[in-house]
Specification:
Blueprint lengths: L1 H27 L3 H9 L11 H27 L5 E5 L4 E6 L2 E9 L5 E3 L5 E3 L5 E4 L2 E4 L2 E3 L2 H6 L13 E3 L5 E6 L2 E4 L16 E3 L1 H10 L5 E4 L1
Parallel strand pairs: 1-13, 11-12
Antiparallel strand pairs: 1-2, 2-3, 3-12, 4-5, 6-13, 7-10, 8-9, 10-11
Length: 226
């Protein structure tokens, strides 16, 4: 049941992001009657010439305005109370938002969808998982504990689980946020590749973007990846 609620919340946040600008444009209009003149080319007419159809149209427009306002309130109530992060894996872009609007946006790098075959039956598909993920931890000066595939990729022997050769310093940037199952939001040494799908599944951000995201998100904050 919890997974269903998470999926529903993820879908609703995505829908809200897509339609909010349209709905707010309606709210910012002086009135819905003005829109009726735009859409239907109805000129303003003196009150004693107003037809029954015009009155019905105005009534319909007022009802529509009320429904739009109510729908916006319901959508806003579904948003997280604190800052949250949206990752677009198709365009390799991110948006850090709160209820007031955009805090930061820019480019990122996500999974390459490259398939690595170890030749012994083991395979790894380097893709970024999609869905809603809470931040599970925050790390300053993270150390990369290299998984098996990192050695297979470089045609190196795989060391034991806790071997020092697995530890690599400086690769992940100044900060990392953990999403679970080994997936992180972290920095990169390869700034020139930002905006491209080149990672092994983690989300890479530029140094300044990562610092802003790290300082705004807390443990439990939500990350929406689509």
């Amino acid at each position: 049941m919890k997974d269903n609620h998470s999926k529903t919340a993820f879908i609703l946040v995505t829908v809200f992001t897509a339609v909010a600008s349209i709905l707010f444009s309606f709210r910012k209009s002086e009135n819905m009657k003005e829109l009726s003149y735009i859409f239907y080319s109805y000129p303003p007419v003196p009150g004693h010439y107003v037809s029954k159809d015009s009155l019905e149209l105005e009534k319909l427009l007022k009802n529509t305005e009320r429904r739009i306002t109510a729908s916006l309130r319901r959508l806003e109530n579904l948003l997280p109370y604190g800052p949250y992060l949206i990752i677009n894996t198709t365009q390799n872009k991110f948006v850090l938002r709160n209820r007031k609007g955009v805090i930061r946006e820019g480019i990122c790098s996500t999974g390459s969808y490259v398939l690595l075959d170890a030749g012994d039956g083991k395979q790894w598909m380097f893709k970024t998982p999609k869905g809603m993920f809470p931040i599970l931890g925050k790390i300053v000066d993270p150390i990369w504990n290299k998984p098996d595939w990192a050695f297979v990729e470089e045609s190196l022997p795989i060391p034991p689980r806790n071997h020092p050769d697995r530890l690599e310093y400086g690769t992940l940037g100044d900060y990392a946020l953990t999403l679970g199952d080994g997936y992180l939001i972290h920095g990169t040494l390869y700034q020139r590749f930002l905006g491209l799908p080149v990672t092994h599944g983690c989300v890479r951000l530029g140094d300044q973007d990562l610092e802003v995201v790290f300082k705004n998100l807390n443990v439990g904050s939500r990350v929406y990846i689509f």
